[in-house]
Amino acid sequence: MKNKTILVTGGGGFLGSHLCERLLEEGNDVICVDNFYTGSKRNIRHLLDNPKFELIRHDVTFPLYLEVDEIYNMACPASPIHYQRDPVQTVKTCVHGAINMLGLAKRLGAKVLQASTSEVYGDPDIHPQVEEYWGNVNPVGLRSCYDEGKRCAETLFHAYRLQCNLPIKIVRIFNTYGPRMHPNDGRVVSNFILQALQDEDITIYGSGDQTRSFCYRDDLIEAMIRMMATPDGVTGPVNIGNPTEFTILELAELVIELTGSRSKIVRLPLPSDDPKQRRPDASKARKLLDWQATTPLREGLARTIDYFDRLLKEDPEFCRSK
């Protein structure tokens, strides 16, 4: 079987870089596109000498003309601290980026996968979240640039499917963690680990009773590749995440235990529009992809702690960068 040429937008990011790695391991030619707004060259530096890997510095809000067989559209800042910094650009990345990748896929007849998000459900009224739920999203809140941008991108993907019969795939990614997370992305896992490793106070917003489900990066990448390999009739959206639920307080206590930290837990006010509960109904992923998350939180956290421990020693300046 002929090896494929695969485009990964946002390929210099946390998940994009691991996806590039995995696709290369399978013998594909990989084109990584990133403008490094939140991605980092350090994530893909070890791939640059691979003759099957190509890096293009490019902003997906502008058209791109390449010859590829498949497209994974991963490009977009995905943490509140980053996507709220430039909300106009966030919306443009979600919407114009989707339009440009769909246009490229239409010209080539290529399969294209949209990395959507659990944020399309907003602060959900039902629990766990099923794909048929339309969400409870504030269209004019602090998080709207990302939430509504991703919702519009899903609409565009379905429009191209209906109008052009384009082979599309949509996955909705729930909280994912692991090595290569940006140290200052404001996410709860990276925040807690860095605070604990430096014996700083661990900050919890609100009571700490709000819940999240945490999916390790390897499990997530496996699901995305399986989704891309499904027949054209399988379009999604499909929830990808770990349905095991933890409170934020439980996560903080586990991080303190695994790091042996002397950190104390302190509480701050809950940010605007922060969801109280977030857990996927992953039954579609099990049925359609024969997939489920298998990495226990304790095991995944231990690997992530090792990564941040090394990063603090090797490049403390990067750990302070925004």
Outline the structure in words:
This protein has 322 residues and is an alpha/beta fold. The chain is 38% helix and 17% strand. It has helices at residues 14-25, 80-83, 87-108, 144-164, 188-197, 217-228, 248-259, 283-289, 297-314, 316-320, and strands spanning 5-9, 29-34, 53-57, 70-73, 111-117, 168-173, 176-177, 202-205, 211-213, 215-216, 238-240, 245-247, 265-268. The strands form four sheets. A seven-stranded parallel sheet has the order 3-2-1-4-5-6-11, with helices on both faces. A two-stranded parallel ribbon has the order 7-10. The mean pLDDT is 93.
Mean pLDDT: 93
Shape: globular
Strand order of the largest sheet: 3-2-1-4-5-6-11
Binned, the helix content reads: 25-40%
Work out the radius of gyration: 19 Å
Secondary-structure element pattern, one letter each = EHEEEHHEHEEHEEEHEEHEHHH
Number of strands: 13
**Biggest sheet architecture:** 7 strands, parallel
Detail the poorly predicted runs.
none
What structural category do the secondary elements indicate?
A: alpha/beta
Strand composition percent: 15-25%
> Given the structure, what is the number of helices?
10
Distance between the termini: 43 Å
